Amino acid sequence: MTEGLATPGAGWRRADGPPAQQRQKRRRRSGRRAAGEVAMVDEAEFTSYYGRPIIKPPVWKSPDVPLYLFLGGAAGSSSILGAIADLSGRPALTRVARLTAGGGSILSVVFLIHDLGRPERFLHMLRVFKPTSPLSVGSYILAPFSAAAGATAAVELLGWFPRLKRFGGAVAALFGGPLATYTAVLLTNTAVPSWHAVHDKLPFVFASSAMAAGGGITMVFTPVAEAGPSRKMAVTGAAIELTMMRRVEHDHGIVSEPYRIGRPGRMLDAARACTAVGAGLTVLVGRTRLGAVASGTLLAAGSLLTRFGVFEAGLTSARDPKYTVIPQRERLAARQQEDHASSVTS
Amino acid sequence: MTSISSASPAFTGRDPKNRLYGPLPDVSEEAGYVEEHPKRVGFFTDTSVCIGCKACEVACKEWNFLPMDDAHGNRDVMGLSGMSYDNTGQLGANSWRHVAFIEQSRTVDLPMPSVGLPGATRQDSGPSPANSSEQSTVEAQASVLNAEALSEFDPQTAQSGTDTQIRWLMSSDVCKHCTHAACLDVCPTGALFRTEYGTVVVQGDICNGCGYCVPACPYGVIDQRKEDGRVFKCTMCYDRLTDGLQPACASACPTSSIQFGDLDELQARADARLATLQSQGVETARLYGRDEDDGVGGAGAFFLLLDEPEVYGLPPDPIVTTRDLPAMWKSAATAAAMMLGVALSAVLGSRKR
Fold it and tell me: What does the longest C-alpha to C-alpha distance in chain B come to?
């Protein structure tokens, strides 16, 4: 008998397959950032079915979902800021934060519904409650939040029912944090390699990005004398966002790669620049009108770009089978080694 | 029978250990069919006897009225993939069976094996069916498909030239009907549900096209019809099962590569088939989706493959994403608390005016 089928692998190669190495190098060159970056991942060889993706890339539409992530975050953090500012007697900041929360929540509902394949069936989201489905949990966060924040913003504009307003703002604030962070679970609870791998970090990225955005937007519209809390929240958020995104971009071997290369890589570079400059400007000139407007806008833009970058990076990782196959192969090899080690010692 | 679309399979409290991950002895009961229910059914796809005829694809399309599409899922386009004899390309909303086709070659550095009748020169390899008094189906199959046939005389393998061997791998892929199905877990409307047969089915009148199940599936099975908005996938012919019929693909398969039946029975049959092939020296044969300790708790549709899973476009080590969901919710809750803390300290730490 020839070795052939008797040996695992047996030396079979796809007859017409392109050499895996070439393909990867081309991809790499096109998307590399200049700044002396060290290759994080070896040029590992992997097999695929004609280079086709193994998992299906998300069908979520691109401007809709990243915008929803951004608006939900900004609205969530503003609602918290608004409720606390209300209790501490800052009427101008309270008003701006409530309007931001209300406007953001209504817009985010619009984007979420528009993204559905059957928008007229939006209410089917509320026919069951499933803790295993982040979108189900999210619907039960978004529904009360947008109702409370929207109503609070409306009565704020009309100037009716001051006590009801305070209650509505508090209810919105209660759901504000979960609204900003559940969207991270929405992305990570998928088979998309670059999202799933960062599931312990992405909620913090989204929370901090939400604070940078919410703080930035309220900073733009609030008189500088009252916007102290906005500035503090925005700068803290920006600092955490930069730290956590750095870990997302570097800590996960090959599945961190999509965050650094190509379109998502450029978006996240821009996001980092906006957020860092925005935070710096806030500290330096945030107490001037012009400085507040400039830095607040930069912070919001940084948050928006972060959402787009994270979203696009996930799509990139879903479309290339190497991000699915190589980590799973490594996982299998590690498990086999572990099994082998335990069988030797026992 | 209870209505389970409103129940979350993973968090109802019974058997908390394996709600999200790990082996489950009775998946239908776990899904809420606590009283009597049929046994769990499944597919065993033995790719070593697949001839790539695509009768399964045709039968599936006809029975389920699936629209035409090309290798990339574009509707009403007759497209050739240009890569192989596979013009279906992938599983998707309109292709619930997909026959993968792979042509492989390898260099043989040994002298050409002598050409002759199967078994003429190597009577020592493999069990000889003539010796046993009673021939089971498995053995009859084995006599045709012994290792030598697979390597030299089977249509799947052919010699070309003196030093290169060519073989064709064909495999009919399908929805795995996982024990822990990510699509079912993440569906926010309850459109996806577990049937009494242990299979996973989409209810077309409930699905609102949120698309969450699409990236959740670790195998890339379920997909959305753009023009319709909803998602579609294999139902294991739920309508036929309730009428006591086999799924269309299994009844159309001319070589019994697709076998339908009770899952435990299929598993035993697959184990026997694997042992036969291995005893004949086909060491690259392996079962895929059979192991109840794997990342999806074992699949309702499992396979006998002749090469690594990724060669066929299957993930080598799929894990249901909801295994990590408790950790995700914990992170999200901590992050939400962090926001509250930061906002609170930002307000308290700022001087008024």
Answer: 99
Residue A260 lies in a domain: yes
Distance CA A287, CA A227 (A): 8
Burial of B204 per CB tally in 10 Å (0-12, 13-18, 19+)? exposed
Cα end-to-end distance, chain A, whole Å: 36
Asked if B217 and B322 count as a contact pair (C-beta separation under 8 A), the reply is: no
Strand, helix or coil for residue B75: strand
CA angle B299, B300, B302 (to 5 degrees): 65
Instruction: Name the residue facing A200 among B212, B331, B343 (closest C-beta).
Output: B331
- pLDDT-wise least confident of A49-58, A197-206, B136-145, B241-250: B136-145
CA distance B341 to chain A (A): 10
CA terminus-to-terminus distance, chain B: 65
Residue-wise DSSP of A200-227: TTHHHHHHHHHHHHHHHHHHHHS-TTT-
Residues with Cβ within 8 Å of residue B342, at least 6 apart in sequence: A211, A233, A236, A237
Q: Which of A285, A324, A277 is nearest to A51 (CA)?
A: A324
**A140 vs B: CB within 8 A:** no
State which residues form the domain around A272.
Answer: 64-321
For residue A172, being part of any structural domain is answered with yes
Chain A and chain B share a number of CB contacts under 8 A equal to 336
Q: What is the CATH number of the domain that holds A297?
A: 1.20.1630.10
Q: How far does Cα A269 stand from its chain's mean position?
A: 15
Q: Does B121 touch chain A (CB under 8 A)?
A: no
Task: Indicate yes or no: CB of A15 within 8 angstroms of CB of B104.
Answer: yes
Chain B partners within 8 Å of A125 (Cβ): 188-189, 208, 210
Question: Which residues of chain B have a CB within 8 Å of the CB of A15?
Answer: 103-105, 166
The total number of structural domains in chain A stands at 1
Find, in chain B, the residue whose alpha carbon is nearest to that of A52.
Answer: B313
| E strand residue ranges, chain B | 41-46, 97-107, 157-160, 164-174, 192-194, 200-202, 223-224, 231-232, 258-262, 286-288, 301-305
CA separation for the pair A115, A147 (Å, rounded): 20
| Domain assignment present for A45 | no
Q: How far is the alpha carbon of A34 from chain B, nearest alpha carbon, in Å?
A: 32
Which of A5, A118, A184 comes nearest B209 by C-beta? A118
Q: What is the pTM of this model?
A: 0.86
Whether residue A150 is contained in a domain is answered as yes
pLDDT digit string (tens) for A60-86?
Answer: 998 999 999 999 999 999 999 999 999
| Best mutation target, B291, B339, B342, to test chain A (most A CBs within 10 A) | B339
ipTM, two decimals, is 0.89
Residue type (1 letter), B219: Y
Each residue of B74-107: pLDDT tens digit? 888 877 888 889 999 999 999 999 999 999 988 8
Query: Are B125 and A1 spatial neighbours (Cβ–Cβ below 8 Å)?
Result: yes
B300 close to A316: Cβ distance less than 8 angstroms = no
Q: Are B343 and A229 inside 8 Å of each other by CB?
A: yes
The minimal CB distance from B339 to the residues A46, A125, A207 is found for: A207
- Cα separation, B290 vs B274, in Å, equals 11
CA distances A282 to A99, A222, A303, B165, Å, are 22, 14, 15, 69
Output b/e per residue, B15-32; b: 16+ Cβ within 10 A.
eeebbbbbebeebbbbbb
Nearest to B228 by CA among B58, B6, B76: B76
pLDDT in tens, B189-225: 999 999 999 999 999 999 999 999 999 999 999 999 9
Question: B346 and A232: CB-CB below 8 Å?
Answer: yes
Helices (H), chain A: 20-31, 64-87, 91-115, 134-158, 162-188, 193-196, 202-221, 228-250, 262-285, 289-319, 321-345
